[in-house]
Amino acid sequence: MERNKKIYFCVDVNSYIDRLDDLSTCFPYYNEAEKAIKKGKDCIVTTSMAHFSFSLRDLGYKIYLCYKDKEVEIKPHMDLTGIGEPCKVIRTGHNILRLFRAGIFNKLLEIE
Known about the structure:
There is one protein chain. The termini are far apart. Strand 3 and strand 4 form a beta hairpin. The protein has one domain. The protein has four helices and four strands. By secondary structure, the chain is of the alpha/beta class. Strands 2-1-3-4 form a four-stranded mixed beta sheet.
């Protein structure tokens, strides 16, 4: 039976703090989150998007971006054409932070 593994990338510190119910799932820094992934933790909450790519899906993780009370699951090959973004399709190797900084997810997360 496949486990339901999730990783939540919190855009801001407040989104992160709101998810601190279970401290064992929260890893604010890249190296801590990377270790948790290598250990196969089922749920990871982090503010660090640096160095992570959508290859996490290959490890069995569903990927969520969180901003305030909004969570958006980022699916493989997600077509963003309909929301007028320059990147049409999310690919496995895309760097999460690079796409976020480019404003790719602003409309999905309702960030102005």
